[in-house]
Amino acid sequence: xxxxxxxxxxxxxxxxxxxxxxxxxxxxxxxxxxxxxxxxxxxxxxxxxxxxxxxxxxxxxxxxxxxxxxxxxxxxxxxxxxxxxxxxxxxxxxxxxxxxxxxxxxxxxxxxxxxxxxxxxxxxxxxxxxxxxxxxxxxxxxxxxxxxxxxxxxxxxxxxxxxxxxxxxxxxxxxxxxxxxxxxxxxxxxxxxxxxxxxxxxxxxxxxxxxxxxxxxxxxxxxxxxxxxxxxxxxxxxxxxxxxxxxxxxxxxxxxxxxxxxxxxxxxxxxxxxxxxxxxxxxxxxxxxxxxxxxxxxxxxxxxxxxxxxxxxxxxxxxxxxxxxxx
Length: 327
Ligand code: XMP
Fold this sequence. Notes:
10 helices, binds xanthosine-5'-monophosphate
């Protein structure tokens, strides 16, 4: 029967057999799947593995540190962080259409990753080391079923997953999570000693905060959203609501302004939308009945602590008809 130690042992043996003495690359997204997949591969082949983390500048507060500091401390994995924020911001300059944003972010992500991949291949060759032949992917069982099953569900938004990488014929895939469900992946992550912030992380879209700013993305708006999002997450966690909430997008309506009053002055700032949802699988969702006092605390703190924001609103739409994300 199922237990995480058995699964890890079986996968470690399988990976050793598949990979041999070749080198392996894994992309990390900050999410649980890619983190656990890489950690199992590391357990199997140690320093033959190099992880690549593309910082696209659209991450939430603290996420890069969780990967660079906590994850590396827990695993001892060799990690290369690619600082790509400037490139992403330049390419996103003035873009407001959600699909366009997704395309640009997906494209730049692949570019940044492939550049690093090529560098690692060249590095191995220059050292006369074993070649890089494998790519790790955190594919789960539901992903396998969904892509093979042809369920006929309409593709409403072009999903881009930061853990998901381009098909590359030169590389063979290593997919240690292919038979597992999400809660099993979390159990394995805990068994491997990964940080709880990563293991328990709620879903977060690959394009990150880029699709939570309604309007064009820029540095200042990202700072505003990051601050508001950090407050909302902190208060929801403190209120013990993480188990009940599937995820809570925090959205900046950057193209909307409303009049407010703060201190002895009139303000003309932006609204922040809270979108807490309860769901089993993100296909359908209901808005979570977050207690009023928790909402009040979040609202007070955001309007007091985040300069550009003078109004906090709650999204009370289920899915359908609303999607979970606003873009
Ligand atoms: P929607 O907004 O379609 O979201 O109801 C359903 C789930 O998918 C996540 N999401 C994404 N995940 N890349 C991802 O990796 C994307 O482009 C993307 N768009 C939405 C969303 O956060 C929710 O969990």
